[in-house]
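Quick one, tokens below:
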């Protein structure tokens, strides 16, 4: 098993994360300050408290899903998160390649588009539907399976592909679209 770091955050991810954190933190503060405490309407106080908790919960939830690294093993790929690892087996893996433009023109179906990482379900013309576990889209590695596609962003895409070739020698390393 080989552990590989996730790509460092590019400037845009840092800016989006910082601005989002400040906006959500500010929203939580403003919401908290506007809660009508000690009034004759206890429902308003309870409801206001719950609403004021939403921005911090978004921040904590997003932080938990940060991509910290990858584990390439014979059994499958481990995607390191803040407190756990998401596992993906290699069943049906056909090809893998580095593609800095893999996420260009993508539409987010469900997930996080830049608060500490880019994760979730996406779609674009080049890849179709795919699942992303990315910190830097320019270091994207596409993993094409028979029935799904994953995009990851290791700090060193070439080292990731070399390690994958060692544990799964039957997998084509290189973009299969290039020879089509």
């Amino acid at each position: 098993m080989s552990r590989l770091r996730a790509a460092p955050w590019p400037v845009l991810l840092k800016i989006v994360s910082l601005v989002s954190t400040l906006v959500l933190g500010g929203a939580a503060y403003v919401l908290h300050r506007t809660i009508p405490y000690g009034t004759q309407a206890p429902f308003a106080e309870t409801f206001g408290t719950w609403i004021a908790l939403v921005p911090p919960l978004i921040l904590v939830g997003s932080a938990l899903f940060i991509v910290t690294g990858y584990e390439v093993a014979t059994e499958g790929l481990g995607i390191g998160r803040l407190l756990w690892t998401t596992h993906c087996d290699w069943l049906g893996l056909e090809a893998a390649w580095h593609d800095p433009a893999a996420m260009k023109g993508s539409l987010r179906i469900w997930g996080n588009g830049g608060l500490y990482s880019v994760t979730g379900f996406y779609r674009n013309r080049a890849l179709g539907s795919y699942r992303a576990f990315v910190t830097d889209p320019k270091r994207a590695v596409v993993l094409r399976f028979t029935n799904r596609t994953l995009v990851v962003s290791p700090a060193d895409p070439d080292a990731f592909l070399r390690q994958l070739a060692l544990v799964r020698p039957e997998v084509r390393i290189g973009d299969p679209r290039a020879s089509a």
